[in-house]
Amino acid sequence: METKTTPAAGPLAGLKVVEMGQLIAGPFAAKTLADFGADVVKIEPPGAGDPLRSWRLLKNGTSVWWQVQSRNKRSVALDLKNAEAQEIVRKLAAEADVLIENFRPGALEGWNLDPQQLVEMNPRLVVLRISGYGQTGPYRDRPGFGVVGEAMGGLRHLTAEPGRVPVRVGVSIGDTLASLHGVIGILMALHERQRSGQGQIIDVALYEAVFNCMESLLPEYSAFGAVRGPAGSALPGIAPTNAYPCSDGGYALVAGNGDSIYKRLMAAIGREDLGNDPELANNAGRVKRVAEIDAAIGAWTKSRTVDEVLEVLDAASVPAGRIYTVADIAADPHYAARGMLQQIRLEDGDTLTVPGIVPKLSRTPGGQHRNAPRLGQDSEAVMRELGLTGEQIAGLKSRGVIKGEQ
User: Fold this and answer.
1) What CATH number does residue 393 fall under?
2) Contact present, 46 and 52 (Cβ < 8 Å)
3) Co-location of 259 and 286 in the same domain
4) Does one domain contain both 165 and 53?
5) What is the maximal distance between C-alpha atoms in the chain?
6) Which among 82, 131, 64 has a CA at the least distance from the CA of 401?
7) Measuring CA to CA, which residue among 404, 369, 372 is closest to residue 62?
């Protein structure tokens, strides 16, 4: 279904956001706010703009990723090394509810845009700062990308087959986790602002966002000296949960780790002997004999296709699934029924399928009301909103302070 361009709506309608980030962490946070109605003014450098515009696969010279990451935003091209451009940012911040940035600590201060001073100028301003290591501490000045944060946060050590090199998750999960933690921080700060009338600065470090999702990693080390290692496709300490090979070359993910689920699984694969074994009635006993259980399940799946395995396990109410490629996602009826495969129309008239809006709110859902902007598409409109005259805008353009559309 084609997405129509409609006025911004949603639970964050009326919220003014200035986005000064680039690539993933800051822009993903701003995208999430924009999806739910916030007016996001994205500041980009003149010239090439946000580097994400040219990342990965391009269509008509622009990344299709850009169409997702910058939907619902407005673009203003500003040369932040210029004092006049810095003054424009201060004017925007003076009227904003939220400012988001993900530069290395000290970058904003180097542009005479110290967030603490911006908050003093606009006491209601909420500032989100995302960086590799945070705004304080001995590592604060190190360059920190998502992959480094994932490694320091403990995730990369776990993403491997035992004895093999740890691998990347496959997407920039560290950046995205930091973004989502940032959005949570923004919403909490806005909620608190309703009582105090005061904004504040939110400090999110990539490695801490990853570390916050590491479950029992640290307390297990603290209590037992246990260093959790990579477990491949298995779920360590919980059995049975694994990926099992099938006759068509695919894998079936089977999660039979609940006590009653385990008994249904064993009945479904014809191994009631294991299902009724009192030593395997609980997780602790199953973990001790996980190799035996995995071998029994694997022997059963190897003689069946993925579809055949899932049909049997679905009928037995055992959680199971296939490993989806993006082609599987695009063809899946559940994705479509949930509105997760949205169609947008690009400027060249072609349609593009993009991810739908998450989370789903029953009364005030988010949506896409505007395609990702061209570089500087909204520079002049935003300047007029700040009260600048046409003559002043023309002067800023002639001096290279701002860039409008060519």
Assistant:
1) 3.40.50.10540
2) no
3) yes
4) yes
5) 85
6) 82
7) 372
pLDDT (0 to 100) of residue 86: 98
| Catalytic-labelled residue, pool 175, 259, 294, 307 | 175
pTM exceeds 0.90 for this model? yes
Number of domains in the chain: 2
Please state, in angstroms and as integers, the Cα–Cα distance from residue 297 to each residue in 41, 155, 310, 357, following that order.
Answer: 53, 28, 13, 37
Q: Considering the domain boundaries, does residue 235 fall inside one? A: no
Say whether both 245 and 312 belong to one domain.
yes
4 contacts 354 by C-beta, under 8 angstroms: no
Burial of 305 (0-12, 13-18, 19+ CB in 10 A): middle
Which pLDDT tens digit goes with each residue over 84-133? 999 999 999 999 999 999 999 999 999 999 999 999 999 999 999 999 99
* pLDDT for position 2: 41
Chain segment 263-315, per-residue pLDDT in tens = 999 999 999 999 999 999 999 999 999 999 999 999 999 999 999 999 999 99
Residues 246 and 323 in one domain: yes
Q: What is the domain extent for residue 302?
A: 241-328
- Are 73 and 105 contacting, i.e. CB atoms less than 8 angstroms apart? no
Structural contact between residues 394 and 91, judged by C-beta atoms closer than 8 angstroms: no
Whether 160 and 290 map to the same domain: the answer is: no
The helix/strand/coil state of 33 is helix
Report CA torsion sign: 125, 32, 66, 324: positive
Whether residue 56 contacts residue 65, with contact meaning beta carbons closer than 8 Å, is answered with: yes
CATH code of the domain in which 284 resides: 3.30.1540.10
Same domain, 188 and 322: no
Known active-site residue 175:
yes
Boundary residue ending a domain (328, 359, 381): 328
- Summarize pLDDT for 3-16 with one digit per residue, the tens: 444 556 799 999 99
124 within 8 A of 154, measured Cβ to Cβ: no
67, 141: one domain: yes
Judgement on whether residues 258 and 322 belong to the same structural domain of the protein = yes
Residue 250 lies in a domain: yes
In angstroms, rounded to a whole number, what is the distance separating the alpha carbons of residues 46 and 104? 20
Nearest CA-CA partner of 294 in 350, 327, 253: 253
Q: How far is CA 39 from CA 116, 239, 332, 369, in A?
A: 23, 47, 33, 11
